Structures are given as structure tokens and as C-alpha cells.
Amino acid sequence: AQKITQTQPGMFVQEKEAVTLDCTYDTSDPSYGLFWYKQPSSGEMIFLIYQGSYDQQNATEGRYSLNFQKARKSANLVISASQLGDSAMYFCAMRDWGGNKLTFGTGTQLKVEL
Amino acid sequence: EPEVTQTPSHQVTQMGQEVILRCVPISNHLYFYWYRQILGQKVEFLVSFYNNEISEKSEIFDDQFSVERPDGSNFTLKIRSTKLEDSAMYFCASSEEVTSTDTQYFGPGTRLTVL
Fold first, then answer.
1. What is residue A26's predicted lDDT score, i.e. its pLDDT?
2. What's chain B's average pLDDT?
């Protein structure tokens, strides 16, 4: 069975600083995808970034990058140059080969401070 | 940019009543999903739907739940007889494919409150 672990229930970061949100996963499938979603206080789920298990390079999307360490089964999200609008809940999720569902972690609440 | 839409944004109902939550997936997507998030908890998979039938469902998705694609654009989740513990945010999502590489795009959610 798949499992996603996010050990940081809450994080604080100062505006313009970088922050790393941790995510570890467990699966027996050799092919899987890892996703990060942002959930602002308004409640919607916004897709941020994706990393495939066979991707050789770490994914990047603007200020978001994914620090993928396959041997350690970790897929940490790095947000550079934090902005006040980055304050939100962040969820790591995984989907395995041929799988229909996303399995989510418990989330990390990020607060960006002035 | 195409997006998933959901109606209503908030639904209040009495215990035992039927509710129908509506979703319009992204138009060229073929795979549809419902998830729920009880307040303060993680997002949980309910059901996936492809080619007019359920492809996978979770233990949460019991006989009280059903899904339907009544026409070419809408995708609905029906809860037959709501319970207090059904109070949650319900998210619809859609994707083009069903591989591990394909992104599921979520709607804004419907907050269901059962009194």
C-alpha cells in the first residue's frame, strides 16, 4: 500500500526566504508519480508540481522545485523567494502505475511572515 | 485556462436527506474523481470514473454513495441519506489519462454541512 508522510504540521518562513517542505513516501511499485498541491484558506486545491519516478532531473516550476531523492524515498518541495501569498496548506500526494487515486499526506501549514 | 467547476460551493442539509453535488470536468478529460476532506484532515479518495463506469472506489464509498455522468459535461456525486459524518469538503477532479504521470486537476470544492 502507498503511504505519504509529511512530518511538519506547521512551518514559518520570512518573506523572500526559501523554505523546504518535507515529504517521504512508501510504495512497492517501480513506477509512480509524486505531486504537490497548495490549498489556500479559501479551500481550493491548486496543482503545483509533478515528479515522475523515472525522471532523471528534479522538477522545477517557477519558484517551486522538487528535491527528489529516490533512494531515500523523499520528494521535498522547495519554495524560493517566499511571498505572503504562499501562506497556505501544502499537500504531497502520490499516484502509482495505472492507479486511479491520489494518496495524500496530512499536509504542512506554511505561514510566510514579513 | 480550462478548469474544473463545482456547484454548489456550500450545501447545508438535514441528516437523512439526499444531496447531489455537481461537477463539470475539463472538457477533453476522460477520467473523473471524487475526493473528500473532513475539516482539518487530509484529502481522501472516494471514487474514480471512466467510460461511464466506476473504475475504483474506496471503503468510504459505500452503498449510500453513487456517481453518474448524466450528460456530456456533468459528473455528479449523490449521497442517498446523509449522516453527520458526511460533513466535509468534496472535491471533484479530472485527468486526461490514468497513468502515474498524469496530473489530476481539482475543482474548488463543495462544502457539505449535515445538521
1. 94
2. 93
Q: Considering only alpha carbons, which residue of chain A is nearest residue B42?
A: A106
Per-residue model confidence as pLDDT tens digits over A72-113: 999 999 999 999 999 999 999 998 777 778 999 999 999 999
CA A82 to chain centre: 15
pLDDT digits (tens, 9 = 90+) for A40-79: 998 889 999 999 999 989 999 999 999 999 999 999 999 9
Query: What pLDDT is stored for residue A88 in this prediction?
Result: 97
Whether the upstream peptide bond of residue B8 has omega within 30° of 0, thus cis, is: yes
Residues from chain B contacting residue A106 (CB–CB below 8 Å): 41-42
CB-CB neighbors (< 8 A) of B41 in chain A: 106
Q: Collect contacts of B13-18 with beta carbons under 8 A, ≥24 apart.
A: B13/B82, B13/B112, B13/B113, B13/B114, B13/B115, B14/B82, B14/B114, B14/B115, B15/B82, B15/B83, B15/B84, B15/B114, B15/B115, B16/B81, B16/B82, B17/B81, B17/B82, B18/B78, B18/B79, B18/B80, B18/B81, B18/B82
Q: Is the pLDDT of residue A25 over 90?
A: yes
Residue whose C-alpha is closest to residue B73's, from B1, B6, B15, B10: B6
Does B45 sit within 8 Å of A103, measured CB to CB?
yes
Cβ–Cβ below 8 Å for B58 and A93? no
Alpha helices (H) in B16-92, listed in sequence order:
none
Please check whether residue A42 is in contact with residue A108, taking contact to mean a CB–CB distance below 8 angstroms.
no
The one-letter amino acid code at A26 reads D
